[in-house]
Amino acid sequence: MIDMAEARPLARAPNSPVRKAPRPSRSIAPQVIDIGVQVTVVAVIAGIWEFGARFGALNPFLLPPLSVVLERLWEDVLAGTALVDVGLTLYRALVGFVIAAIIGIPAGILMARSAVVRWFLDPLVSIGFPMPKIAFLPIFVLWFDIYDTSKIIMVAFSCFFPIVSATYAGTASLDKWPIWSARSFGAKERELLWEVYLPMAMPQIITGLQVALPVGMITTIVTEMLMGGRGVGGAMIMAGRFADSVGVFSGIVQIIILGFLVVKAVELLRRRILAWHPETRR
To answer: What pTM did the predictor assign?
Structure first.
């Protein structure tokens, strides 16, 4: 038997200093090195592009100098055309993405919780996920119009499948013990949904959203190229018809900047939403 006197903590001497537990040091050196490597790679590629086109190593018509492309982009920004094109592309992509999220997240949760819904939707998702969604664009044009409606629906259709698949995978793989514990304390189905299912599956759901958003951006630009009109894709295809290589590469730079900002915004949103999750604390 353990002696209770021995189990008590030893009394601290009156003048002995209090030892505090060491705090883990958070070094920012790896982050700085990572950012430095990324900036270096981008700078090297930009330098090869600029000097290769300037000194004749690359055909300046097929690949105009980066400085000329940035100058055109700046002129388009001052004229307002670039802002209108980027705004229209971003509007179509985000609206279609939001529609897909509103439909896909509940559908994925229902697939994981209801055998009837899973029996109905699983074959459709299995067939539609690997299918090239852009093949449905002529159908959407016939059903709707040649303006924003068909483009937005095309984006929503493309984003739906990664969202519903990630939501279903995240909800179906949940640990059963927290669910059983909540039910044993009298939690209702609605309380289980909002306080157990969604928080536990949220990392996987957000991963599906992070996959779907770039898909939506790509789909938006491709539909604009195929259907014409205003937008980054439409401006690029119009510049290509007039052999304006500088305009084409200006659109590519716009896509790079827009995609980078959107991806970083989603990463920031993920950290905010999952502030309680261990992945954010790490």
So the answer is: 0.76
